[in-house]
Fold these 4 entries.
Entry 1:
Amino acid sequence: MDDTFIVIGCDNNCIEVFDAKSGKYVRSLLGHEGGVWALQFIKNEISNEHILVTGGCDRAASVWNLTTGERRHVLRGHNSTIRCLKIRDDKIAVTGSRDTTLRIWDIERGTLRHVCTGHQGSVRCLDISGNKVVSGSYDSTARLWDIETGQCLHEFMGHHSQIYAIAFDGVKVVTGSLDSHIRVWSAETGACLATLQGHTSLVGHLQLSTRVLVSGGSDGNLRVWDMDTFECKQRISAHDNSVTCLQYDDKRILSGGSDGRVKLWDIEKGTLIRSFTQHARTVWKIQMNDTKAVVILQRDRPLGPNEEHNIHVASHRTVIELHDFDLDKEQDGRMTLATANADSEEEDDTSGSILNEPATPSTQILEA
């Protein structure tokens, strides 16, 4: 974990950078004029610099030198909120927006390469593999694009409602939808290979490896799927309400829910290893590596005697925790990095999203 950062995009227009080893605040990156909804980084192997790309409500993406805090480029062109972004390498990034378009950028020069049109609703999710990018939209379709030309190679049609999650390994495209189904598609032919059924409501979270898919739904369940046979290997009743975030490795699944719980699961047995954090109102975001996990959650804030009837005083706070855990220990070490009293804004998307969906902070562990 040497030379490792934690980067958090917030609704107060700021990007906060912390040292993951010490938990100490490093710097704030200022420049966005609205909440930051998406971020990702890439490390330049030649210069040894971390390049960060961010996007959000101000309709612009920014390219930062994370090492120095310098904002190198502002990428303008979208007509609405940037809802998602992915970086291919230290030269190319793709943004998806509520304006229904994708934009492919040269982040080294700060220039636009392609505008990808075709979706009829907000672009909700992206994933990249090689020279291809896939997009999922509230128009109930997904599309596969060639990054070099900007051309649409396939349109994946079959869902009956908005697509909220997408995963792509270069061979298979996987989509999760409000219709409660997961569909697996061939990136080569565009054909639907399988429809995975079992969730009973929105499938909002997917993580794909070559042979394993993990899905999380608003039904509170995690499911582990064999991508060779398309069979469900594990059904885990993980949370009392929606699964709001998940991440897995070869042995473990870490999940957060709107029940305010963070839980670590054995991926083979489907059993609970440990619960993390004190109870919260909701968990917004998690990210882990081998030994650490970052958790962003919301907790109630005790009100003073003069605050109880003041509607302008927040009754909750956003808490960012860094957990240093060891599977051989009974307890994890928890460090609170920062707290804030501001609530996240609610999403109100006219293209068909679920109202009152929180505008969750974006988090990524940046590791050298």
Note: The chain is about 0% helix and 55% strand.
Entry 2:
Amino acid sequence: MKEALMVLEAGLHERRVAGTGSNSVSSRSHGFFCVEVKKRRRNRMPGPWGGSALTVVDLAGSERARDAKTAGATLQEAGKINESLMYLGQCLQMQSDIGNSIKSHSHHRNPQKAIMIVTADPVGDFNATSQILRYSALAREVTVPRIPSVTSTIMAQSTASHYFSPGRGGGRTPTDSERETMEIAALEIARMSEEIDGLRSELKEEQDRRLESEAHLESLRDRIVEIEMDVREEVFSEMEKQMETEMRRWKASFASEQERQEEHVDRKLEILTKTIDLGDDDKENAGCDGGFTGDLEDENERLRREVESLRRELQGRSPSLA
């Protein structure tokens, strides 16, 4: 009893409580307390172990965020609690449907008694109360097949080996209860072997899927490399086309600018030639005085130097344009 109380105290220590708008000491944990009692007869011939189990479950209550006024981590915790209670309702519904579909196999029902205690507020929230009553109604219809525990199976096997040991007279015939115990143990071993085989097949399938996923990932990586190379080549060719277009446009613009400069130089030369011709005509006129003639000669000399400079500049540009 002392050890049981210590276990209960440890569970209470791990239990979480938080204050909400609905309850100042609202439980934030589901509590499970299992009591298993084993017994066997006291005589010279030790028989198989028997026993019963009592499991007390304290579920954390469902709360509406609007009424509880929770926020932050407490609100997330309340969401998880409500989600777990929703899953409980789904499990109860499935168990109820299974129990209704195999009512003819009533001899496999669990003889242990299951009780669901409902605390409903007659003047509380209608939705919460109806949800609680719906869960309790589903729990009344649930029937669970009895499965022998591993502990009882092992104890039964040890008892059977004790009965049929060579020192106790090997010619003893097992009783019906012993045969039933051995059959239960054999069924449990077969069930566990079948479960192990199923797990092995699932593991093999998972390994195959993993290898397939790795191969698919490798093919995707190769495809990514191919796409990257195609994109690089496409971008490179596009850049080459743009550079060629820009080069042609620049050459055309340069040629046009050169033509305009040549036309400008030609116009200047034409104007200069006309000016020189006019100066020569003025020299021939006898009526012109000497001072004006000297000015014209200086102007003609300046214009000739400018023409020579322009010609040299034009000749210097011509080879680069070729």
Note: The CA atoms of residues 163 and 172 lie 8 Å apart.
Entry 3:
Amino acid sequence: MPSISDTLATPLSLYAIPAMWIISLYPAFARVSTFNEVFQLERNVNESLKWLPDDSSAESRSVRQPRVSYASVAQKKTIPPAVAARIQRLEGAHANGLENLPIFGLAVLAGNFAQMDSANLNIACGFYLLTRLAYNHFYARQYDEKSADIRSLTWVISLASPLYIFFKSASLLAQKYP
């Protein structure tokens, strides 16, 4: 059985790019699930109160323009404000993950191009993925200023990994090509 040091010496860093993409998609799946639960509940209420018009909920959950659906969720009177806020936070976590994916992906590619030590690169990638999981958790569950500050701090800490990889790669390339 390979030891931890043997595993870390294996070039695994490229797997971190699709792993980050999946981590970025998780809030979107949670958002859709929460959104669908709300509209299932709304549909059940509307069926019990036949006199209520159903056209507004059909319009607000259009698959043709899903971003409009999520953006307008706070204006729906039938959605509890806490649930609407959670849906919007999940959308924010998803967007932030996709916004940060290119910088991380490019850093991993730079680290591999510069032939950075696999163990260091794997540890930096693992740290980044763990901090992004924590970021998603804090973003989805923030309810006050303190938890928002923790989320922001987690985001700043997560940036240390791609920056470390970029600077280490630049240093290695500067040594190889003076």
Note: Confidence is low (pLDDT under 50) at residues 49-56.
Entry 4:
Amino acid sequence: MQLATRGALERLPDNQREVLVLKYINGLSTEEVGVVIKKSLAATNSLLQRGRQGLREALGPALGLPAAESYGETR
């Protein structure tokens, strides 16, 4: 599973991957991530949401997760 997660992360756009790594691997708050990437809180939240969506789409079938629409998110 770790390899699948790493592969899914590597396929994300750089900016989405960066915010996910800063938040979930490095443990920064959303506000701290925004400072590091020099974006507003709203822009940071948007990148996090899109990054999580990308991971969900890449890993969901293998994990048996519901489609994105089940989370109230659409593309």
Note: The two ends are 25 Å apart (CA to CA).
